[in-house]
Amino acid sequence: MDLYQQLILDHSKRPQHAGLREPFEGEAHHVNTTCGDEVTVRVHVDGDEVKDVSYDAQGCSISVASASILAEEVIGFSVEESLSTYEAMRAMLTSKGQDPGDEEVIGDGVALAGVAKYPARVKCALLPWAAYTDALVRAGVDISTVGGQR
C-alpha cells in the first residue's frame, strides 16, 4: 500500500478534531446526495484566525479523511490562508489528475490527488470543504477574497 493510501486510511480511522465542539460562530450541514455522505462543520473564528474547526462526518473513508485533513490544515491559520488552502484543494481535486497538489499548501491533502480521476469521488472529498466555506459565511466571514499565501 502506498503512503497516500495509508494517509487516507489513517485519517478515516483516526480522524483529527472530530466531534462537534463549542464555541463556534458558524455551522453548516452538507449532504452528498449521490452517495449519502453527510458532514456538519463548525467554525470558531476570532478576528481573522481560525481558532477551531470541529465536525461530524458520516460516510466513506474519502469524505471522513478529507474532513480530518481540513481541520488539520486550517486550524491556527488566518481565514485568508485557509481559503487559499481550500482553493488549492479544489483545484487539485477538479483537475482530472493533472494537478498533483502542493504539499506545502495542502499538507496531507495531497493524499487525495488520486481522487481527481474519479468524478463521483471528487464530491466526497470536497464535501467537508464546501461545508467549511458555508460555515464561514454563516459566521459572518467575507469569503469573497481568496488568495493569501501560507
From TrEMBL:
Gene3D superfamilies: 3.90.1010.10
Top-level taxon of the source organism: Bacteria
Residue stretches spanning the membrane: none
SUPFAM superfamilies xref list: SufE/NifU
A matching Pfam family: NifU_N
Molecular function in Gene Ontology: iron ion binding; iron-sulfur cluster binding
Example GO biological process: iron-sulfur cluster assembly
InterPro entries named among the record's database cross-references: NIF_FeS_clus_asmbl_NifU_N
Domain NIF system FeS cluster assembly NifU N-terminal, residue spans: 4-124
Official protein name in the record: SUF system NifU family Fe-S cluster assembly protein
